[in-house]
Amino acid sequence: MGKNEYKPYLMRIAEITEETPDVNTFRLEFTNEEEAGGFSFNAGQFGEYSVFGEGESTFCIASSPTRKGYIECTFRRAGRVTKALAAREVGDTIGFRGPYGNVFPIGDWKGKSLLFVSGGIALPPLRCVIWNALDLREDFKDITIVYGARSVQDLVYKKELEEWRAKPDITLITTVDPGGETPEWKGEIGFVPTVLEKAAPASADTIALLCGPPIMIKLTLPVLSALGFSPGNIFTTLENRMKCGIGKCGRCNVGKYFVCKDGPVFTFAQVDELPAEY
Ligand SMILES: Cc1cc2nc3c(=O)[nH]c(=O)nc-3n(C[C@H](O)[C@H](O)[C@H](O)COP(=O)(O)OP(=O)(O)OC[C@H]3O[C@@H](n4cnc5c(N)ncnc54)[C@H](O)[C@@H]3O)c2cc1C
Ligand code: FES
Fold first, then answer.
1. To test ligand 2's pocket by mutation, which of 252, 254, 256, 257 has the most ligand atoms within 8 angstroms of CB?
2. pLDDT tens-digit series, residues 136-188
3. What does DSSP assign to residue 251?
4. Does residue 164 come out as left (phi exceeding 0), alpha (psi in the -120 to 50 range) or beta?
5. What is the pTM of this model?
6. How far is the centre of ligand 1, averaged over its atoms, from the C-alpha of 247 (Å)?
7. Residue whose CA is closest, atom 3 of ligand 1?
8. Ligand 1 centroid distance, CA of 127 (Å)
9. CATH for the stretch 106-237
10. CATH-assigned architecture of domain 9-100
11. Domain ranges of the chain
12. Is 72 exposed, middle or buried (0-12, 13-18, 19+ CB in 10 A)?
């Protein structure tokens, strides 16, 4: 009999970080050492995470492929499965199928600068690339991160933001929406596109990675364009609803693409070709 593609790996929750009141990060370790040894993935890929008896949810792999022995996912409590996941504790076992999807072509970006622009809970897929690039720091020129959230409370990876801020070879700009600041807040106050426009990072020899809510993407693209970025040099990951994750059910279809197989990583030159309602 062939391999059952729907059979998940059994993963032990090794660590839980509460990022915000409704966002958690799980560090997951394989319960089977042989499976752990045979597992690899690349930045940009995703998986199906399951709570037995509840169902599966799609999240990116938020840790870097350069960090071996575990994977991490960061998820917001949105509905049935994510609520059940959030109720799990360290030591519990959950399921994981993957890795699925295409990848950010990091190998092609050697010698270039990287600009990451992200909002809210959309930082996890870029966090994977950020750590990947930082672990290969000599391969890249400037690394700039512009990250915003509605309020200080909504910023994810607060500890890592401090770590990145302390590094002399990264420019990190954090911002919160007007009214979302605290008296101690030292970052910017304003929406991501405005803050990006003010920072005006150079576009020459630079790849931009953009991930965020649709309104942020819509308002950020013209800013990137004005800065000189072409749609082919701006990458994103799409979050179409998925079921199988392996190109069988058709749930994630948009235009000529199955996001689970052809994506989730796309350039905006490809996104421009998608049906108008997308
Ligand atoms: C490739 C990919 C990567 C993703 N990565 C992450 C991640 O790293 N972290 C994270 O928190 N979420 C991520 N998502 C979104 C996540 O899959 C959904 O929020 C999650 O499946 C909801 O599961 P649920 O059963 O708890 O909610 P449901 O009961 O299914 O739905 C609850 C709410 O979430 C909305 N929703 C469901 N699926 C999606 C979706 N695919 N996109 C947007 N909204 C949705 C519904 O419309 C509803 O309002 C990703 C989705 C895809 C396709
Ligand atoms: S999720 Fe089933 S075909 Fe893409």
1. 252
2. 999 999 999 999 999 999 999 999 999 999 999 999 999 999 999 999 999 99
3. T
4. alpha
5. 0.94
6. 18
7. 59
8. 18
9. 3.40.50.80
10. Beta Barrel (2.40)
11. 9-100, 106-237
12. buried
